[in-house]
Description:
Low-confidence stretches: 113-117
Number of helices: 4
Largest sheet: 5 strands, antiparallel
Amino acid sequence: MAGERESSSVSVAQYWVVVVGALLGALTLVFLMALVIMAALDYEVPVGSRFLVISVLALGAGLASAFLGGTAAAAGRIPVPFASSHPIEFSAAGGVGVLVLIMVLGSVLYGPSSDSGKSLPTGRVVLFDGWARPSESGFSFGSQTIVSWWSGQADVLVANTTPPESSAKLFVQYQVPPYEMSPQDQGARGGAVQMSQARLDDVVECPAEGYGGHWLDTRQNAIYCLRTRDGQHYAKIKVSEVFADRIAFDWIFQPNGSRKFK
């Protein structure tokens, strides 16, 4: 009787170990599938949080492997003498091995060192009124330099009107009628659209349409998405200062041609 009770207790314990192992494995699989679905919908895990994601996957897979592997060894289903004789040691070793393997592979393939974690060009610039200081009135995001109003290289410019108003304005060159084309406008396909976000980091993607050229109604703390003069790249800026003779703004540039900033 005592032997039967002991055997029954062992069977029940093995049953629940299998259940727990299967549940951990299923939860880990669901978590992985959720990550795949998010990626397919273009929602990526922030780079700074990827280590936590890798840790959860590794721990879940390691625990599932430990529970299921140890149970299989105790039941004699693994043709390894050590595993059958010492199922607890085999379970621990197998679980730790899976955990370490996923941590290493995850860190290499999915960690912060991947290309998506590279920071985008960013900075702060002050541009002056093109009528008074034309050599300091334009900015090129591609070269990240201040350029002249007449250079034909500026993605965005600053000027006050004539007669001057109380504050300067941003100007984006775009070669389109009915505007008369000056030499520096030739080939320009720039554009700008004001965004509703309050923070620059909140703009994760610039819109595909809605860009206007030439003068912008520039306000302090306003955020704009800019299409560069080649019409093939995008930047986002937040105006920090607006004066009669200059405008300052913070900027982030996406050099790969994408409208997304991730």
